TrEMBL record:
Its job: Molecular chaperone. Has ATPase activity.
UniProt keyword annotations, A-Z: ATP-binding, Chaperone, Cytoplasm, Nucleotide-binding, Stress response
Primary location group: cytoplasm
Underlying gene: htpG
Residues annotated for ATP binding in this entry: E40, N44, D86, N99, S106, G107, Q128, F129, G130, V131, G132, F133, T180, R346
GO molecular function: ATP binding; ATP hydrolysis activity; ATP-dependent protein folding chaperone; unfolded protein binding
InterPro entries in UniProt: HATPase_C_sf, HATPase_dom, Heat_shock_protein_90_CS, HSP90_C, Hsp90_fam, Hsp90_N, Ribosomal_Su5_D2-typ_SF
Subunit details: Homodimer.
NCBIfam families (alphabetical): PRK05218.1
HAMAP family, per the entry: HSP90 (MF_00505)
Name of the molecule in the record: Chaperone protein HtpG
Amino acid sequence: MTQESTTAASETLGFQAEVKQLLHLMIHSLYSNKEIFLRELVSNASDACDKLRFEAIDNPALLEGGGELAIHVSYDKAARTITVSDNGIGLTREDAIANLGTIARSGTREFFSRLTGDQQADAQLIGQFGVGFYASFIVASKVTVLSRRAGAPAGEAVRWESSGDGEFTIAQTEKATRGTDVILTLREGEDDFLSGWRLREILRRYSDHISLPIRMKKEEWDADKGEQVQRDEEETVNQASALWTRAKNEITDEQYREFYKHVSHDFDDPLAWTHNRVEGRSEYTQLLYVPKHAPFDLWDRNGKRGVKLYVKRVFIMDDAEQLLPAYLRFVRGVIDSADLPLNVSREILQESRDVRAIREGSTKRILSLLEDLAENRKDDYATFWSAFGQVLKEGTGEDATNLERIAKLLRFASTHTGTDEQTVSLADYVSRMKEGQDKIYYVTAETFATAANSPHLEVFRKKGVEVLLLTDRVDEWMLSYLREFDGKQLVSVAKGSLDLGGMADEQEKKQQAEVAESVKPLVERLKTALEGRVKDVRVTFRLVDSPACVVADEHDLGQNLQRLLKAAGQQAPESKPILEINPEHALVKRIEAADEASFADWSELLLDQALLAEGAALDDPAAFVKRMNALLLGGQA
Ligand SMILES: Nc1ncnc2c1ncn2[C@@H]1O[C@H](COP(=O)(O)OP(=O)(O)OP(=O)(O)O)[C@@H](O)[C@H]1O
């Protein structure tokens, strides 16, 4: 932030560069949704009251003698202003500078890197990022914030003001009451917001779920003046009861959606929700949502996760991550416990038995919700899977208790569909298994193309056996926990010797044994030529079009996993691959006929191309090219 001018009374500061950019984008791309500014201000006012109530648990003096927490919305036609006031926690001078002049949120960099310059696409992204306080500038040419932090004397209030054009001024001021007034001076042409009817309509639509009363002055028709006039008396314009405490049948879908936007700061509707009151050993209410898209900080270790925790309707904390396992970190919503103490801390949450019960119960609810989507709303499940499938896969390792349920929810790409879309469930796979097939086959690789074109798949294609194509980073990790499904072992096509079990007939087996015997001398020569680079050389019948492939020994790490570990900077026990050759292939026959002088080069070439096909980077690619060129030209390397 750059300091541009200072006087004793007021100071002018520059917005952080990102704020300027965000404001500019927002004003242009969210204009068609401009009334949401009110929702955002009311949402902040409600959060500020929640925070005060929480701090007052330990420090009742902050309440300054009591008084009801409430939000007031008013307008002044002559001055062309709208004011949203709360008597919540308030802002200090430092808070105002930090919160109203910068964006200090995880995921910010990711957000800016995804902006395209296309207004519609960017509007969507801004919505996902969360617009908050800055939405005021869509309709206001000037925004003034008067605020006094709870507990601070009246003379130590702060006045923040900006026209949204790059800088703001900040000054000390007097404010008789605790909390914050946000005063918007409307832009030209926005006067239709200066109407009690219009403001009430917006508040009912977007903010009815707010649990505090939202108050406005009553109005009545003045026949003499020929217009609505405001009276001194106020009325509450929302239901003012916490949404999650209401009976399900009294809540409309619209109200559920708006509440989601309030708790999640998402602009978009949620994909699905589950709302339950749990009674018994542990008592709590949960209203949990699955969003439509991933937040910007899904992969950020310091990113926000978790749900809001309330205890007996008192807000305790945002992002209470102990209430759900990490693999459900995309879930948003509220859990309101009747058992936890009001002074519960994050440390206590970690230990608490009540929290464990809540976590187990909430996990089950979310899994049921996802099962319902997968069964009855397949398109929505596909949306869910593409946003959060990779996160859900972490559950295979994290949640042994629910492993079976999680496994059923997984979706993969496979040779059956042949596309990179992850749509095949393990149950689908099992239902298509061949007569005599007793295993679920998969191949892992870094890209879809490498997986789909892997030489290991050739015999499976020939026999019409489906293979799952796994290319997400988390897959190798997942597979170390997900060892079987429905009593069938999951087996890598690139590990161990291939045993297609009951699928090869006797005659085929006999014939293969004869061929294997006949190439024994070649196998021995290859072993000698490639000594040190391979663990073994053997004949395979898994190949059709390729001359050779590499496989990992049964108990060694797969080549793909070795590469991933290496890329992540981890020590991986290095195990050499096994080279398998296709005795029927013309190139293998050509090598068999090679003279002693060129045999070593042919062998190296065969191994290197098998490694390349499998997605490996060669240790010495230049030598490979040189050798290949020499052989192409018919000479020696
Ligand atoms: N009425 C208010 N009283 C006290 N603090 C406020 C008030 N309005 C805003 N703030 C402070 O300013 C911060 C920024 O608000 P803003 O609405 O931009 O973001 P947010 O609410 O944190 O998230 P989002 O942008 O996703 O809505 C808030 O987190 C809060 O600390």
